[in-house]
Write a structure and sequence with these properties.
The structure is a single chain. Helices cover 36% and strands 20% of the residues. The chain is of the alpha+beta class. The protein has a domain of 96 residues. The strands form five sheets. The protein has a five-stranded mixed beta sheet with strand order 12-13-14-15-16, with helices on both faces. Strands 1-10-11 form a three-stranded mixed beta sheet. A three-stranded antiparallel beta sheet has the order 2-4-3. The model has no long low-confidence stretch (mean pLDDT 94).
Length: 377
């Protein structure tokens, strides 16, 4: 059977629809983004990502610090993210590693050190999670928790930290173990502060539901490959293939094999770009977290601007395309926003950018934003 042909334009138009960038609803809790969590790095990004997708913008975005409804945790790739509070337990099970190789991938450098030393990385996560649960019984800073946990876990799980010039619990091991331990982040706290999640069922006994995360990624950022999903989850292709879900359709996307959810295919093939929509996306927005960056941003020079080694900018999204990068800095009671276009921006696009920029200032509780433009890159 011949694979359906999907154009780049169809794929991006479909993503825009499922990611709600046309603002179809005033209720942020209805968004499909919650199925993978809404990344919140730097703090405040999650609110801006939701504001880009709901009618009314930031003013209609719910209070993400309301612990009855939302929980901030270290989630996929160990990044801070906001979940609906009722989803946290299932996330912990879905992010539990399938096997040792999967654990090494999720632990990044900490995982390589454990493997080199001949230690079981899954057991290291379990032991660290149990120690975190025992230590974090009330709000405490990340540094305080790390010190106490480091005294409880085996010495072989301790790593040398260059910035601290000390041996302590590895940062990524702490991040991966914290969710399993039922430990949340206190929103907006500086320094980073942890506290226990009430009525936690305990450290997961095994992986359960990772296929749901795969399906969620394919819905939000599909069509995609196992490699795309593996990079998003920070694991191996082998681990993703072990939980590769049923009811997918293989398609040809801009000349490469990719997979889409069966229920998405008809809408995908019928998708067309729309005109007149401009959004300011924060630097960790779901649109920018899709792993096929060559598809979403074809220009290599533009990808370098959007994804430098440090300090990513936000993106100006217009009708399915990233047309500029944006950065801000606070100046007194106002925000200075600098936009770096990738192409010539129309008067209407600039007007829309300036309208949308009010939410950026409001998210920082500042009164005014001043937008300036660099020459097109």
């Amino acid at each position: 059977m011949r694979r359906p042909e999907v154009t780049r334009e169809q794929a991006l138009a479909h993503r825009a629809t499922v990611q709600a960038l046309h603002r179809p609803t005033a209720d942020a809790t209805e968004l499909a983004l919650w199925d993978v969590g809404v990344q919140d790095s730097p703090a405040g990004s999650a609110a801006l990502a939701l504001a880009a997708r709901v009618q009314g913008g930031l003013a209609a975005t719910p209070d993400l610090t309301d612990a009855r409804r939302f929980t901030t945790i270290w989630a996929i790739r160990g990044a801070p993210a906001v979940l609906r509070s009722g989803d946290v337990g299932s996330f912990a099970a879905a992010l539990w590693p399938i096997d040792a190789a999967d654990a090494v991938g999720r632990l990044a450098g900490n995982g390589q050190a454990l493997r080199t030393g001949g230690h079981d990385p899954v057991e290291a996560i379990r032991v660290t999670a149990e120690a975190l649960r025992a230590v974090v019984t009330e709000a405490m800073t990340k540094g305080e928790a790390s010190t106490e946990v480091s005294a409880r876990i085996p010495e072989e799980y301790i790593t040398w930290c260059r910035p601290c010039q000390a041996h302590h619990l590895g940062d990524q091991l702490m991040r991966v173990a914290a969710l399993a331990a039922g430990v949340r982040l206190v929103p907006g706290a500086s320094p980073t502060t942890l506290e226990p999640i009430a009525r936690w069922a305990g450290v997961p006994r095994g992986q359960d539901g990772t296929d749901g995360l795969v399906r969620a990624y394919l819905h939000l950022c599909g069509p995609a490959t196992p490699g795309d999903v593996a990079t998003f989850l920070q694991t191996s292709v082998r681990a993703v293939k072990a939980v590769w879900p049923d009811h997918l359709v293989e398609v040809s996307l801009a000349g490469r094999r990719a997979w889409s959810l069966e229920e998405d295919v008809d809408d995908l093939l019928a998708s067309e770009p729309t005109n007149g929509t401009v959004r300011l996306l924060p630097r960790s927005d779901p649109w920018l977290l899709a792993r096929d960056r060559e598809l979403t941003v074809p220009g290599a020079a533009h990808r370098k601007v959007l994804w430098p080694a440090l300090a990513w900018p936000g993106a100006v999204w217009a009708d399915g395309e990233v047309v500029a990068a944006w950065r801000t800095r606070a100046k007194g009671t106002s925000v200075a926003m600098t936009v770096e276009p990738f192409t010539k921006l129309s008067v209407a696009q600039k007007r829309a950018i300036e309208d949308e920029s009010a939410d950026v200032a409001a998210s920082r509780q500042l009164d005014e934003v001043r937008v300036s433009y660099l020459d097109a890159a």
